[in-house]
Specification:
Layout: H1 12-21, H2 25-39, H3 43-54, H4 58-70, H5 79-92, H6 99-114
Helix pairs in contact: 2-3, 2-4, 3-4, 3-6, 4-5, 5-6
């Protein structure tokens, strides 16, 4: 289940067990806590996406989020810049980043960046996000 997961509340034992089985998530949580204030994506989105992207390419995952946080020298059509600008625009106008949408937008930006695609915007699917159309990191 990828959407509407806020009702899932793991117990302390379940969380400890998960941390024991996936110690690499600590590096993702550390990166998220360092970048969340500068980057403006919720720390939960950064941490989860970094964890997922690191399974594909650990160095590229870290570089991706450092570039989203910094933003210097990134062409306007790079999906990293498009994600950064969309999040900043939302935050400056007083908006809140919906975590589910933030997760989907970040995955879309990652996939487009990895594919070498240029973008001028990142969009949600018509009709909204569902478990069936939620993007998968590649």
């Amino acid at each position: 289940m990828r959407t509407n997961t806020g009702a899932i509340k793991p117990t302390a034992l379940e969380m400890d067990d998960f941390l024991d089985r996936t110690p690499e998530i600590r590096a993702s949580a550390d990166l998220a806590s360092r970048l969340a204030s500068r980057e403006r994506l919720p720390a939960s989105v950064i941490g989860l996406c970094h964890f997922l992207f690191s399974k594909i390419d650990p160095d590229a995952a870290t570089t991706f989020f450092l570039r989203v946080a910094d933003g210097d020298g990134i062409p306007a059509t790079d999906p990293i810049a498009v994600l950064r600008n969309r999040v900043i625009k939302l935050r400056v106008s007083g908006g809140r980043i919906n975590e589910t949408e933030g997760l989907a937008l970040t995955i879309r930006a990652w996939n487009a960046h990895r594919a070498g695609e240029n973008r001028t915007k990142l969009q949600m699917p018509k009709g909204g996000l569902t478990n069936e159309n939620f993007p998968e990191p590649k």
